[in-house]
């Protein structure tokens, strides 16, 4: 039997759990007409919380209403791709716009660099204008009382800030001209915050922010129930409880737990029944995969001090006292609080109680404990005592 669960980044899950009200709000914003606040929106949240699949779902809503939807990822050159898509051109044409990095790479003295910088700014002014023209042409060609254009931009980060500026300036003009458009962008919280707080882009600060987080356990329970039974297997109440608990409300974990449990039952050739054994083996496998796919990349992307902060936290079985963490790191409380704030902003930890922090990403503690450095720090702390 085909496995209904989809533990793959960006893959639409069988049931999009716990996001119904966000989707309803967007539907409302499209119906509400030009200038509705929900038409300018951004999604943030930790890795694997479901930003990309939300963008897909919002796109589907717009498509169902016969809107033109263009999905882009904020990598270099995305504006050129966007404009070409609007103009109905193929994506294989040579790139017309040079990225600022390339232009500035040209060797030369300060004089030349300044000239090049001027050219870059001009280029982005042009990009913005080209984008507006392409949008206007497209909108003019459609019955705007009925249809519009939605642009979704994923993986927003400050390295593409120039192009995002060009896009935002264009969108701002189009909104002012009361065109029938919507713009939704998404990314990791700290990266999106950098872009939204850019001085040039004050306009984006007025966008509606949706911080995607954990989803309610009862909704996960029902999603497991329907997905499993609709796909032809039986599963009882206790097992559903176990599967649900193992997710900790973390969306990616729903797919991982579901996928590996389903697979265990297929491997065991138990046909149409999912047993507690399948669930236990599925959960075990899901945790391992979560380490490879989520914890590893998160951890590797941190600075040395941020890593040490997490390792110090992983020594505790529950929430950690921030003053105790500072002591373990042999740093002042103020010094440690800088890293605490950074990790909270990255959605990796959370301030659980006054003076306490806890892991937000599920099973992160177990992952860190399986690291050799964890034991290294344990020894250091014991030596200190
Ligand atoms: N609300 C949800 N209900 C069920 N499954 C979900 C939900 N949201 C996301 N998923 C599943 O979680 C996984 C990760 O989703 P997605 O790739 O959209 O996350 P992301 O936030 O874009 O992550 P990243 O920051 O790495 O880009 C996918 O397998 C997806 O099917
Ligand atoms: Mg994504």
Automatic annotation (TrEMBL):
Domain of life per record: Bacteria
SUPFAM superfamilies, per the entry: P-loop containing nucleoside triphosphate hydrolases
Designated name of the protein: AAA ATPase
Organism: Bifidobacterium samirii
Domain Orc1-like AAA ATPase: 16-167
């Amino acid at each position: 039997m085909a496995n209904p669960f989809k533990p793959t980044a960006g893959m639409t899950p069988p049931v999009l759990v716990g996001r119904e009200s966000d989707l309803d709000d967007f539907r409302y914003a499209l119906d509400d007409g030009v200038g509705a606040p929900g038409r300018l929106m951004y999604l943030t949240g930790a890795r694997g919380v479901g930003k990309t699949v939300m963008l897909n779902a919002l796109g589907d809503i717009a498509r169902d209403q016969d809107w033109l939807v263009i999905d882009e990822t904020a990598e270099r050159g995305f504006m050129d791709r966007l404009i070409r898509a609007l103009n109905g051109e193929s994506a294989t044409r040579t790139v017309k716009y040079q990225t600022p990095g390339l232009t500035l790479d040209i060797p030369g003295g300060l004089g030349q660099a300044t000239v090049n910088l001027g050219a870059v700014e001009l280029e982005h002014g042009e990009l913005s204008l080209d984008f507006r023209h392409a949008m206007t042409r497209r909108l003019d060609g459609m019955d705007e009382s009925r249809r519009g254009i939605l642009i979704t931009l994923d993986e927003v980060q400050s390295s593409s800030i120039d192009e995002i500026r060009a896009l935002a300036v264009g969108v701002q003009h189009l909104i002012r001209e009361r065109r029938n458009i919507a713009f939704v962008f998404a990314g990791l919280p700290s990266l999106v915050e950098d872009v939204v707080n850019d001085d040039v882009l004050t306009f984006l600060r007025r966008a509606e922010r949706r911080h995607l987080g954990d989803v309610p356990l009862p909704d996960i329970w029902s999603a497991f129930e329907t997905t499993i039974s609709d796909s032809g297997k039986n599963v009882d109440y206790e097992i559903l409880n176990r599967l649900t608990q193992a997710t900790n409300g973390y969306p990616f974990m729903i797919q991982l737990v579901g996928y590996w449990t389903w697979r265990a039952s297929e491997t065991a050739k138990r046909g149409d029944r999912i047993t507690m054994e399948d669930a236990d083996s599925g959960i075990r496998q899901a945790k391992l995969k979560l380490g490879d796919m989520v914890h590893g990349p998160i951890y590797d992307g941190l600075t040395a001090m941020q890593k040490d902060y997490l390792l110090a936290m992983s020594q505790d079985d529950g929430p950690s006292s921030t003053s105790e963490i500072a002591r373990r790191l042999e740093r002042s409380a103020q010094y440690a609080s800088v890293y605490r704030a950074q990790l909270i902003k990255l959605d990796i930890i959370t301030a659980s109680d006054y003076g306490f922090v806890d892991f937000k990403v599920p099973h992160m503690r177990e992952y860190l404990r399986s690291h050799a450095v964890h034991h290294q720090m344990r020894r250091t702390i014991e030596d200190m005592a």
